[in-house]
Amino acid sequence: MTPQEIRTLLESIVDSDLDQSLGSLGAIHEIEVIGNRVRVFLDAVQPLHWAAKRLDHDCKSTIRAVYPGAEIEILVREKGGVARRMPTLSGIKNLIAVASGKGGVGKSTVAANLAAALAQRGASVGLLDADIYGPSQPTMYGLSSETMRAEKSADGKVIGYPNEAYGVKVASIGFVMQRDQAAILRGPMLAGYFTMLVEQIVWGELDYLIFDLPPGTGDIQLTLTQRIPLTGAVVVTTPQEIALADVRRSIQMFSKVKVDVLGVVENMSYFVPPDMPDRKYHIFGEGGGQSVAKEFSVPFLGEIPIDVRVRQGADDGFPFVLDPESGSLGDAFRSVAENIVREIRKANARAVDTVVEISL
Ligand SMILES: Nc1ncnc2c1ncn2[C@@H]1O[C@H](COP(=O)(O)OP(=O)(O)OP(=O)(O)O)[C@@H](O)[C@H]1O
Ligand SMILES: [Mg+2]
Fold first, then answer.
1. How many Å is the Cα radius of gyration of the chain?
2. Quick one: pLDDT band at residue 261, thresholds 50, 70, 90?
3. Ligand 1 contact via 136 beta carbon (within 6 Å)
4. β-pairing, 158-161 with 149-152?
5. Residue 267 dihedral angles phi and psi, to the nearest 5°
6. 215 close to ligand 1 (CB < 6 Angstrom)
7. Does ligand 1 have an atom closer than 6 angstroms to the CB of 260?
8. pLDDT, tens only, 190-231
9. Are 91 and 125 in contact (CB under 8 A)?
10. CA atoms of 172 and 146, how far apart (whole Å)
11. Domains of the chain as residue ranges with CATH
């Protein structure tokens, strides 16, 4: 058993998220062999909250198939990501916007449960509620009576610290301004205020910062997408045609400002009555999310049914996905989170490629 033999075995393993082999990804950094002990050092495209376990398993089983007695250790190091110019964002690996064209389709619900699902998976997560007219995250995270801790930094700038619940750092424009105060601000002023908020909150090191955007394609959305180096955007819709028209506008806005659309989540896809679990009612129509994703050649990230427990969790300040009894409904959210993470890895792999191309 030599390092070269092990390398040859591992090179053909496919990183299924990226659909490329570890060899072609340049993921095998180093291999040490001492007697029957093997240590493999991998450099894999982040984030690895689902992939690390799979890579570990695939590498071990591939080596064991040829060397059954080998003692194997796989050490995975993260690579990939984008350098951020803004100092407050420099410690954040992935910036994700959750957006929609139409209001009330469940962006905030998806953002809240996505953040919670990622934190439960071991990630460090921040959630920024950017909806000035109707901030939801303080309520959805049970933080509505909190205020944001703020202080003056050495150079006289005001900096604020997010609040924390369920392992997620939450900051909202609602912590720093009243709703009726927001109502008198218009367009560019609002966008300026939002930029200030982004520049002043100290997040520290994060795997993901999720932006819960207000509905539509207005100033806030444009400011965010143009000024902030987003990893990508997740677009939420309900299945009916009237929502899809707005989704198209939203996707077009992101492609115009060259932000990757990570995919479409369809919320309120169907209703299963608790007393008739074999029935499924497509209240808002069927298949709309899938068809719009297909139309724009972006991934379809999954369906979330309508369920009173989701609404209740949101009102009670508890992201439903964290309920140990969340069952198949929780799985729907977790599967959306896993699919989003896969698309983030793809985006980061493309970014890695871009860097390589530029340096040639
Ligand atoms: N899958 C679901 N099942 C049941 N209720 C849901 C579901 N998704 C969202 N809701 C409820 O629908 C309402 C609207 O959801 P939410 O606030 O997440 O939408 P939004 O797109 O963020 O709205 P806005 O455009 O106002 O920001 C909330 O009361 C929420 O609890
Ligand atoms: Mg909202």
1. 22
2. very high
3. yes
4. antiparallel
5. -105, 155
6. yes
7. no
8. 777 777 778 888 999 999 999 999 888 887 788 888 888 899
9. no
10. 10
11. 3-79 (3.30.300.130), 87-327 (3.40.50.300)
